[in-house]
Amino acid sequence: MTAPPARPLGHGPTACYASGMDPLHVLVVEDEPTNQEVAALILRSGGHRVTTCSSGQEALALLAGDAAVDVILMDLLMPELDGLTVTRALKADPRLAAIPVLIVSARASASDRALGLAAGAEGYLTKPFRRSELLAALAGVMGHSREAGALPADRPGKAQQPGGK
């Protein structure tokens, strides 16, 4: 019996294992369909399970139910409820506060990053981003959350300080 051919690292469902990170259930909250699709495609190619929401209200309603996610990718600029408002609401809810939030936004200033982190996000990634940047930022927020005690210690990931890339 021969082993199946190896896949290149960083591609396909084995990518998260190659990076030392368990597969995650990621909630992508993004109102722009193309950006939502790109993020979901990258995450799935990294071996992660993805649920998408097109608005902050939809995300809050989903999470108010029995939906369990490991991490949330949150757009900042959305109609009605923006990403900062949704992040603050999540962090104010004791049942949801431990879920790491990675803000993904076209707003690239230091003050925007500071506002996102002050709202409770564990990380901030600017658009446009490369596949490797998204997966590294995801690993970073998961490592940061584990170190802060929000996740079990057996959830591996690389640590990233808030505000770092």
Main structural class: alpha/beta
- The gross shape turns out to be globular
Spatial arrangement of strands, main beta sheet: 2-1-3-4-5
How is the main sheet built?
Answer: 5 strands, parallel
Q: In a few lines, what is going on in this structure?
A:
The protein is an alpha/beta fold.
How would you portray this structure in words?
- The chain is α/β, with parallel strands linked by helices.
- It is 38% helix and 15% strand.
- The protein contains 6 helices and 5 strands.
- The chain has helices at 15-18, 33-45, 56-64, 83-92, 110-118, 131-147, and strands at residues 25-29, 49-53, 71-75, 101-105, 123-126.
- A 5-stranded parallel β-sheet has the order 2-1-3-4-5, sandwiched between helices.
- Strand 1, helix 2 (33-45) and strand 2 form a beta-alpha-beta unit.
- Helix 3 runs parallel beside helix 4 (83-92).
- The longest helix has 17 residues, at 131-147.
- The protein is globular.
- The protein starts with 14 loop residues before the first helix and ends in an 18-residue tail after the last helix.
- Residues 1-19 and 147-165 have low confidence and may be disordered.
